[in-house]
Input
Amino acid sequence: MVSFTLETRRGTWTAPSPIKPKGVSKKNRAFDEPVFRHFIEIQGRLAALLPAKQGEDERAGALH
Output
C-alpha cells in the first residue's frame, strides 16, 4: 500500500492505493490513480500544522 496525505487550510485529504506489479517484471511496480477523501476526524501531533491565513476564520470549514 501507498498512502498520500495532503493538508490544506480547509482540512486533511488522504488517499490509500494498493501497489501492483507492472507487467512481468519483479522490480517495476505501479499504483492506481489515488482517490482523495476529506477527513475531518484526524487528530494528533502531526495534524493541523498549517496556521490560519491572516483575516480568515479558523472554523471556515471544508472547501466543498
User: Anything to note?
Assistant: The mean pLDDT is 81. Residues 2-39 form one domain. The longest strand covers residues 2-8. The two ends are 28 Å apart (CA to CA).
